[in-house]
Amino acid sequence: MEFFFPDSQDLVDPSFDFITEKRSETRIRQRDDLYAHEIYRRPPYDGMLVSKAIVEGTGAGTGRYTLGQQRRFSVEGVKEFLRMPPGMKVIGDCGAFTYVKESVPPVTVDEVIRFYEDAGFDYGASVDHIIFQYDSDWDYKLPGMERVPEDCIERQALTIELARDFIKTCKKEKVGFEPMGIVQGWSPKSYSRAFSALQKMGYKYIALGGLVPLKSNEIVEILEPISPKLKTDTRLHLFGVSRLDHVKQFAQHGVVSFDSTSPLTQAFKEDKENYYGKDRKYAAIRVPQVDINVKLKNRILSGEVRQGEAFRLERECMEALRLFDKRRFPRADLIELLIEYQSLFGGTRNYAAEYETTLRERPWKECKCNVCQELGINVVIFRGAERNRRRGFHNVYVTHNRLKRIRSRIAVA
Fold first, then answer.
1. Catalytic residue among 93, 122, 128, 325
2. Where does the tRNA-guanine(15) transglycosylase-like domain start and stop, copy by copy (predicted)?
3. What are phi and psi of 140, to 5 degrees?
4. Residues 222-239 pLDDT 10s
5. How is domain 46-260 classified at the CATH fold level?
6. Of 166, 183, 184, 178, residue with least CA distance to 111
């Protein structure tokens, strides 16, 4: 089971100073920044996934890459641009999530193949159209039951037709990457039928899409009718799924790889589970920046909060956290200070209990990863992209290490 990490231009600046919170004035984005695989001695994933939509944009949407970065990507190719270590594989896809609201994909099969071929991808996914509606009951035609939405049927038919055109063109042009067919569905049987169609076309690597909102047991029920149909040389990939608790089940059904940004994004999008510890997840310590927090700036402008008081408490919180990391500041006093500062933002959420757990257990002290060793307590401070992304990189590292342990147990079994 391999873990592919999607690229979303998530890098960190090695020149960033965590005390002054300033960076080198000569720093150039991406060129001088570091990817997660450049921070760790061993990459915290087995490969990467790059979406055409992230690089170039798709339809009405814009990509994450600047025009200069797009030109370098085109000239250097995906592996050199991402500075990937030798031997690491990369999957390309269209980024169908960016055009999910459009009636048809705004990219052609020829455009996508050219993108993969020119950039030197190892695997290239067919053009698809995401189906985000799912109901296993739609497999049973019972009186009074709702019919499958027409939009679902049309999207699946279009995805299958595009997959047929994709592999046909790949074979004709003798491309240098392995075609990966994408399956979309709305129920176990619909996924199974689409899978059969793609396997019959000649795909050896088939990915299941539209799984992100589904529960793990629903993903398993999708895999159950598919796995008996798998030929000995057909492999399965799961798009956007990292349910490590179910890896063994997934593997038993023929899944060999998955991709996910969840370990990264949980660092700054989750309410409480931001830092991956050895046995549990912890809440990060929120110390927003006065000068860029919109909610606090509005309260200052309205006269509800004095600006000087806000800056004073912000400085005191940061200094107290640094002293706490050196065991020179009481935990109870630190939590009281943090809650006082957060009260300025007008929110009703109180994180005192979560902070008590994080600060009492000090999980960053137990972690041997480069990020935790270098940052200390900064890795659990919810503040700015440089801290938050590094915490995300730590989460990716923990995820990959856990996956490696699971792989070892599966191999022994």
1. 93
2. 154-267
3. -120, 120
4. 999 999 999 999 999 999
5. TIM Barrel (3.20.20)
6. 166
